[in-house]
Amino acid sequence: MTAQPVEMELETPLTAEQVTALPLGGTVWLSGTIFGLRDATLRRMFDEGAPLPEPLAGYPCLHTAPNARKVDGRYEKICIGTTTSARMERFTRPLLRDAGARAIIGKGGLGDDSLAAMQEYGAVYLAIVGGAAALQTTQIVSIDAVYWEDLFPECLWRFTVKRLGPLIVGMDAHGGNLYAEVAAAAQARAAAAGV
Amino acid sequence: MVEALARAAGEAYVRALKTLPRDVKDALRNARGRERNARAQSILDTICRNVEVAEETGNIICQDTGTPVYYLSLGEAFPLPPRRIEEAVRLGCADVTARYAIRPNAVHPFRRVNTGNNVGRGVPVIHFAFTAGDALELLVVPKGSGSENQSFLKMLVPAEGRAGIERFVLECVTRAGGMPCPPVVLGVGVGGTFDQCAGLAKRAASRPIGSACGDPDGRALEQKLLQAVNALGIGPMGLGGDTTALAVHVETADTHISQLPVAVNTQCWAARRAAVRVDRDGQATILS
Fold first, then answer.
1. Is some CB atom of chain A closer than 8 A to the CB atom of B178?
2. Is A109 within a domain?
3. DSSP-assigned letters across all residues of B164-212
């Protein structure tokens, strides 16, 4: 279908140069610090304007709400996976522009404004295999910080990950979008079949 | 008796979260064998590996612990009345949520405040069917939101017929793309009233893979739609490939002369479910 498969190992934080060089369809394995957030976290950040408890600039953000247990004041991982990104579409632009995130890790892809924002601010969408949370939990080394616990499980989470993946570059920093390619082909096939 | 039933209902929820039914595992493996797209093969490999890791580590398969949906088949001589059974199921869900630190998902629709225990107004969802005998059979389906959000209903007019039904289902699958975690099990309800049609679709999505619709017209539609859906090329996680659906299940009901409702309830690849039978003395037997 697309060109040769490309496999890359990356350490966070990521630079604009690193992410703009990522080819559409390439496979990435991420190590280092990443942040976890989703619906309620993003509403607090951008609708309520709550100040960021720590800077996210340069880091990937994972669309997630973990299963975790608090033991002696610290959160232990139970099962950490990924939620559908499309619900968070309107938050991509502020997340990249104001918070400086360099990558969004999620499933199912994002919309046109997110694609434009990724191009403007230098960021990519990394598609994780949705539902493969038991496996991904083994790639999460630790939960290092948890903010806004009142939103549990939709807190702001900071994780250390080791070779999180495989992650597929589903939307690149140049307007490339695998989801749109697949959807256009599906529509053409449906039309050709007369439905 | 309430305690025994609560335990059986709660443990079935946990078992569903941890172990995929054999038919689903086989369908995933078979799909991997048939798949021709390299990226899709790699995604299916990751999915199959995940199912193994969950079993090896005793972890749950997916982080979305879902909305627990219970289908109860109540024998007429079972010693607890429906109201006490409902109480037991709610108790069981709250208990395992606390004990296993299962992610709580139930929030108030406006205030978005989490109940913290997967029990709330109308949660868990409990359906009753009534049967002969003195046992209670319980099927639990933890329904994840990624796929539930990609569910649709349309009141077609009778003149749209079979072609209209097929067109609507393909539109739904195309619109859903990678969002519901394909390869999916599509539950399609045809006929009935508005609410009944949605219920048929959900029941269809909860059927074992390999089972067939009891209505011959529904069965024919299952085969035709499976082929048509997989010809779209949406593929695992919406990133292209031959495997968009593992199965299409149709359930039908007679409808009004001026109606043709069709509903699609999408189930992700992690088509989790578990069943248990509780005898009149409270003895629980795992069915799946």
1. yes
2. yes
3. HHHHHHHHHHHHHTTTT-SSEEEEEEEES-HHHHHHHHHHHHTSPTT--
For residue B233, give the nearest of B178, B195, B278 by alpha carbon.
B178
Question: Where would I find the H helices in chain A?
Answer: 16-20, 39-42, 92-97, 112-121, 133-139, 178-192
The secondary structure element, H or E, covering residue B16 is helix B2-18
Quote the strand ranges of chain B, DSSP E: 67-75, 125-131, 136-143, 152-156, 184-191, 245-253, 260-267, 274-278, 284-286
- What ipTM does the predicted assembly reach? 0.94
In a domain, A19, yes or no: yes
- The predicted-structure confidence for A59-70, as pLDDT tens digits, reads as follows 999 999 999 999
Is A180 in the B-facing interface, judged by CB distances under 8 Å? Answer: no
Whats the size of chain A, residue-wise? 195
Cβ distance of B63 and A181 shorter than 8 Å? no
Q: Tell me the average pLDDT across A109-124.
A: 98
How distant is the Cα of B164 from the closest Cα of chain A, in angstroms?
A: 9
Nearest in space to B277 (alpha carbons), one of B72, B48, B18, B30: B72
pLDDT in tens, A3-36: 556 899 999 999 999 999 999 999 999 999 999 9
**A23 lies within 8 A of chain B by CB:** no
> What's the domain count of chain A?
1
pLDDT digits (tens, 9 = 90+) for A134-192: 999 999 999 999 999 999 999 999 999 999 999 999 999 999 999 999 999 999 998 88
Full-model pTM: 0.95
Per-residue pLDDT, A2 = 47
CATH fold, domain B2-16+61-144+272-286, is: 60s Ribosomal Protein L30; Chain: A; (3.30.1330)
Residue with tokens 């096939």: A189
- Find the domain containing A109 and state its range: 7-192
**Domain of residue A41, CATH code:** 3.20.130.10
Instruction: Answer yes or no: do A66 and B63 touch at CB < 8 A.
Output: yes
User: Do the domain assignments include residue A1?
Assistant: no
Q: Tell me, yes or no, whether A176 lies in a domain.
A: yes
Cα–Cα nearest to A24, from B35, B49, B240: B240
A78 touching B, CB under 8 A?
yes
Three state DSSP letters for B251-271: EEECCCCCCEEEEEEEECCCC
